[in-house]
Specification:
Elements: H1 5-21, H2 23-26, H3 34-42, E1 43-47, E2 56-63, H4 73-88, E3 107-113, H5 119-123, H6 127-139, E4 145-151, H7 157-164, H8 170-173, E5 176-178, H9 184-187, H10 206-219, H11 221-225
Parallel strand pairs: 2-3, 3-4, 4-5
Antiparallel strand pairs: 1-2
């Protein structure tokens, strides 16, 4: 929050308020349950190793299985935020090696691969869940969002944008880059050393990165499910001391 204590307090309060308001997404969760397993079986939601030259963390999202019947929008959104919370419990510079890293990112870059995504996938979207997802992403996620890269754009991209644009702030929409002619334009923003081999990079295969993610989620399962970390007890809130105690 650019060193602002008041803005930091506001962000923390918004973050936990939204979590508790939408418990079906942020509190009632298990990275090992059947819904989560289905999400991780058909989609990759992987943080990539290392940081960009600017110190940004990069995450990549793509379909592994193109069958629209596999989509469960609410369960998928829940899985997305479990991955996010798991990542925030570790240093951003982690490259999957045994060496510890104490690096923290200056910002966040997201890559969405639209390969295999159809209008049938879009029809599975739940607008109430989309509204929660976009609000949390833009108002409560503790990152500086620097860029969103859309690759392998389909010819009906305009229809997808039409559906999503009302939920996206003007500031965030300006961060979106549509790559319609291959990946060369993506390499101007994200080094090949970070990108997976499937995208012409040297950052390892998506299968390897996915396996590492699932191992991390398994390790952090108790942390993700423990309400002491996520649930706010309003009766213990002490506004005079300007802090927001959590359940004990």
């Amino acid at each position: 929050m650019d060193g602002s204590i008041e803005d930091t307090k506001k962000l923390i309060k918004t973050n936990y308020s939204m979590r508790n308001k939408h418990a079906h997404i942020f509190l009632d969760r298990d990275p090992a349950d059947a819904d989560s397993k289905q999400t991780f079986d058909y989609a990759d939601l992987v943080p990539l190793p290392g940081l960009t030259e600017e110190g940004y963390k990069v995450s990549c999202y793509r379909l592994r299985d193109f069958d629209p019947s596999k989509v469960n929008h609410t369960a998928d959104t829940k899985a997305f935020f479990m991955v996010s919370d798991c990542r925030f419990s570790m240093c951003d510079g982690d490259d999957g090696s045994d060496e510890d890293s104490d690096m923290f990112a200056n910002g966040e870059v997201q890559i969405f691969d639209m390969n295999g995504y159809t209008l049938k996938h879009l029809s599975k979207m739940t607008f109430s869940t989309l509204r929660i997802y976009m609000a949390f992403l833009q108002e409560a996620l503790p990152v500086h969002l620097k860029a969103i890269h859309i690759i392998n754009c389909p010819p009906y991209l305009d229809k997808i944008v039409t559906v999503l644009k009302p939920f996206i702030s003007r500031e965030v929409f300006k961060l979106i880059h549509f790559h319609t002619a291959g990946l060369d334009s993506l390499y101007k923003y994200v080094s090949r050393s970070i990108l997976p081999e499937e995208y012409g990079g040297t950052g390892g295969t998506l299968d390897k990165l996915r396996a590492q993610l699932l191992a991390n989620l398994s390790c952090k399962r108790e942390y993700l499910m423990d309400p002491n970390y996520w649930k706010v007890d309003d009766s213990k809130r002490n506004t005079e001391r300007r802090r927001w105690p959590f359940m004990s």
